[in-house]
User: What shape does this take?
Amino acid sequence: MPRPRPVLAPADIKRRTPPGQYVTEKFPVLTYGPTPAFERAAWDFRMWGLVENEARWSYDEFMALPSTKIVADFHCVTTWSRLDNEWEGVTFRDLLSHVTLRPEARYAMLHCDGGYTTNLSLEAMSEADVMFAYRLDGEDLDPEHGWPLRSIVPKLYAWKSAKWVRGIEFIPEDRPGFWEQNGYHMNGDPWTEERYG
Ligand SMILES: Nc1nc2c(c(=O)[nH]1)N[C@H]1C(S)=C(S)[C@@H](COP(=O)(O)O)O[C@H]1N2
Ligand SMILES: [Mo]
Assistant: This one.
């Protein structure tokens, strides 16, 4: 059953909309390049790099992991925000329980089908609402919105919410991902307008 779109009070909308953003009920697609094809048999999700033990899940194994629903706002740096989205998937905290990080691990690089990447500090990743989602508002993600899996990092601009994500690499120092190499901020906090680096 799809979840009905919420009706928010104007005061809540105001409080939840970062500076320089406007609220839309639409869900624009923002992708650099084509939507990659999903190949179920070849698909896996991996955690590697500065870990004592690498982790890997097949599609069926990942889908069998305990799931969580999180309601969060979504802010694109091009100035639209879509409020109150109910994402369903696996939290980063739950995934982290499957690996032991080496002490040098301080940043993460998310890797996607199609070659997109984005970097995050482990501090940003450790927020309780960071997750890897396969459903939105009660329905499977549309392919162009990242199905079968995307990251959701509600406290940062939406370019950190990587579509078609396939894995997390743990690294010692910050390194720019795709948009970060092209001028976007290394962190991307919408409340302080960390738009460009
Ligand atoms: N793989 C991949 N993930 C991506 C992007 C992309 O081009 N490729 N664009 C990012 C940007 S800039 C935004 S605003 C959001 C948009 O998500 P949407 O297309 O589902 O609205 O996805 C982010 N994740
Ligand atoms: Mo964006």
Observations:
- The pocket of molybdenum atom (ligand 2) is lined by residues 30, 76-78, 158-159 (CB under 6 Å).
- The chain has a mean pLDDT of 98.
